[in-house]
């Protein structure tokens, strides 16, 4: 499909050189650029359809992956469980902006070296794959992993998006849980940071559809769409969990300036960002 044809269907679509995914915009890879859409005007079903439209075509799987017990089990080629015990997590990854010189095997080896107790790692297509890790004493934080992956991206001149799964007991429920994590990854990877986990996206993922169906919430949301400066204020207060000093620091403003903005926000919206219930409601309106 050509960009002109997409433009006829979605007049607001734009070609950009770098992806910009926020609560109001969403980007998808298109040839050597990105197509940016207005996410605020799209339903979840439309966004899912766009995700399918711009999903890269899958290349034939590597022979090594085909022989993997983990691959066969997690992707549904066999129902019996591999002979494993303990807790495991699956780290999903997708590579963006790789060039023709990219060496898949070298990158995968470097990626595996970042984690302890790796049981297996493999690509499932040209750009995406899974790493299975058994639970161990040494666990890097999301912030530490993010810094390491950024260094790896710089070395290989690519961009990596990762979902850090939870550790789950290896039992008959394991595959269905991982399948849900895969759905979460595919739906949220263009809406959040390059490295994320369930706690960072759960509220967004599990409430977005319900909010979309609510006339009351949609009516409130219209107020927020018309006030773009509110988003920055609400997010700063949410990320600081109501701590005004931390929020002021993140916004690079004086505490008194932020106090004034919060008071002004209350006058216009009737919602107090000092109250955690009101703050949660305001955050939900941005999802």
UniProtKB/TrEMBL annotation:
InterPro entries the UniProt entry points to:
CdaR-like_regulators, Homeodomain-like_sf, PucR_C-HTH_dom, PucR_C-HTH_sf
* Record domain PucR C-terminal helix-turn-helix: where: 236-286
Coiled coil stretches, renumbered: none
The record ties this protein, via Pfam families, to: HTH_30 (PF13556)
Top-rank taxon, per record: Bacteria
Q: Which PANTHER family match?
A: CARBOHYDRATE DIACID REGULATOR
Under what name is this protein listed?
Answer: Helix-turn-helix domain-containing protein
Give the species this sequence originates from: Carnobacterium antarcticum
